[in-house]
Amino acid sequence: MLLVLVVAGVTFLGVGDSAFRALRYERDAILDGDFWRVLSGHVVHVSWAHLGVNVAVGALVVAALGRHLGPWVFLLCAAGTTAGLFLFSLGVKWYAGLSGVLHGLIVYGALEAWRRDRRWIWLAAIALVALKVSLEEWRGAPGGLAELVGAPIVVRAHLYGAISGALAFVLLYRPRRSRL
Fold first, then answer.
1. DSSP 6-34
2. 25-26 and 94-95: which strand pairing?
C-alpha cells in the first residue's frame, strides 16, 4: 500500500500544481460535489520535502506494524481524518498529505498489538501519539516543520487521524478464536 501511495505522490508532484489543486482536500469543493477529494487529498503533497517526510514516517509505520495494516484501515483513517476536518475544522480551507492517516495507522496498529498481547508496544505507541497530539494541540506544530514542507501544518488532522485509527479498529476488530 505504501508503494502505491509513493508512486501516486511522485506522479502528482511531477504533474505539477494543477493536479495538486484538483486533488487536495478543499471543503468548499467537496460541498460543490468534488467527492474524490475526501480520499485524494491524502495522496497529494505540497512539496518533495513534504512527500519525503510522509514517506519516511510511513516506512517506519509499515516496518513496525505493516502486517496489520490493510487497505480498509487506510481508507477508514483517510475518510475519518477528512470527516473530522470537514465537520469540526470549518476554518481549514485545504489540506494535503498523509500525516493524519499516519497517526491513525499508528493508533490502529497499537490497538492491534494490544489485542495480540503485545502490551508494551501498545503502551509505547499510544503514549507517544497521545503526547505528540497533545503537544501539537497546545503549542502547534514543531518549529521549522512548516518551512521544511512548504505549507502550514494542520495539526488538527493528526488528532482526527488518531481518533479515526481507534474507530477503524472498533469497526474492523475480529476477536481471536481460542485454540482448543
1. HHHHHHHHHH-HHHHHHHSEEHHHHHTT-
2. antiparallel
Q: Would you state the cell numbers that stand for residue 161, as one nine-digit string?
A: 487521524
Could you read off the pLDDT of 4-22 as tens digits, one per residue?
766 776 777 677 788 899 9
Residue 41: how many CA atoms within 13 Å on its side-chain side?
A: 30
Q: Break the chain into its structural domains and give their ranges.
A: 47-91+98-172
Query: Taking the alpha carbons of 58, 100, 138, 131 in that order, is the dihedral positive or negative?
Result: negative
CB atoms within 10 A of CB 92: 17
pTM of full prediction above 0.85: yes
CB 160 within 8 A of CB 137: no
Tell me the three-class secondary structure of the chain, residue by residue: CHHHHHHHHHHHHHHCHHHHHHHCEEHHHHHCCCCCHHHHCCCCCCCHHHHHHHHHHHHHHHHHHHHHCCHHHHHHHHHHHHHHHHHHCCCCCEECCCHHHHHHHHHHHHHHHHHCCCHHHHHHHHHHHHHHHHHHHHHCCCCCHHHHHCCCCCHHHHHHHHHHHHHHHHHHCCCCCCCC
Model pLDDT, residue 173: 84
Residue 114: the pLDDT is 83
Do 24 and 41 touch, CB atoms closer than 8 A?
yes
Only one residue has cell 503549542, namely 139
